[in-house]
Amino acid sequence: MIIAVDGPAASGKGTIAKALGRHYGLPVLDTGLLYRAVGLSVLKAGGDPDHEEDALAACGFDDAILADPALRSEAVGSLASRVSVHQSVRDALIQRQRDFATQPGGAILDGRDIGTVIAPDANAKIFVTASVKVRAERRFQDALNHGGHPDMDSLIADIQARDTRDMSRDHAPLKQAEGADLLDTSDLTIDAAVQRAIALVDAQLEGRP
């Protein structure tokens, strides 16, 4: 069983994917971490994330970097969005994601092109979204919780810029996959969003031949 969870930054897709993993007893892959690892690797190498050759060279990163706390920073998130526009980078990471998806027993993957490119034949697909204002507020609170000093205007601008890059890129743009159910978490608590996601997945699984 493969479950695809797609959506923009701070929509809640990661939290929902992890909850679905616990509910269905399936391993979960945050595919965004792979692109963050590439972005961070480019930065450490002194390269340019907007330069395709630099970004592609960083795709051979050591898996140990996936445990680096720096991957969760806003700055690296922005780098991930920039390197992900390169088709060669996406091609380099596709097989790693598909291998995870097709492991015995199944898996849950969250990202931006899971239901459209990585696993278009997934058993269930959800597209998680939320308003820019709500997503910025979530980032703001998260930064405060980690001792940061966030600026709301900067967070809103960053989210809007990332949305534009992700939705307008030529290769695998962010969009709701065919057959995916839309889940807007703007006005939902975490528990309510998770329960809604489980209900949507169950309905899709029951509706399959």
Report on this structure.
Keywords: ATP-binding, Cytoplasm, Kinase, Nucleotide-binding, Transferase. Its main location: cytoplasm. Residues 3-201 form the Cytidylate kinase domain. It catalyses: dCMP + ATP = dCDP + ADP; CMP + ATP = CDP + ADP. The protein has 209 residues and is of the alpha/beta class. 53% of the residues lie in helices and 11% in strands. The protein has 9 helices and 5 strands; from the N terminus they run E-H-E-H-H-H-H-E-H-E-H-H-E-H. The chain has helices spanning 13-24, 32-45, 52-57, 74-83, 87-101, 114-118, 132-145, 152-168, 190-207, and strands at 2-6, 28-30, 107-111, 124-129, 181-184. Strands 2-3-1-4-5 form a 5-stranded parallel sheet, sandwiched between helices. Helix 1 packs across helix 9 (190-207). The longest helix is centred in the last third of the chain and has 18 residues, at 190-207. It starts with a strand and ends with a helix.
Helix-residue proportion: 40-55%
Shape: globular
Quote the average pLDDT: 94
Order of strands in the sheet with the most strands?
2-3-1-4-5
Alpha-beta classification: alpha/beta
Q: Please give the alpha-carbon distance between the first and last residues.
A: 14 Å
Tally of individual helices: 9
Strand content: 5-15%
Regions with pLDDT < 50 over 5+ consecutive residues? Answer: none
Instruction: Characterize the main sheet.
Output: 5 strands, parallel
* β-strand number: 5
Q: Provide the succession of SSEs.
A: EHEHHHHEHEHHEH
Computed over alpha carbons, the radius of gyration is 16 Å
Topology of helices and strands:
Blueprint: E1 2-6, H1 13-24, E2 28-30, H2 32-45, H3 52-57, H4 74-83, H5 87-101, E3 107-111, H6 114-118, E4 124-129, H7 132-145, H8 152-168, E5 181-184, H9 190-207
Parallel strand pairs: 1-3, 1-4, 2-3, 4-5
Helix pairs in contact: 1-9, 2-4, 7-8
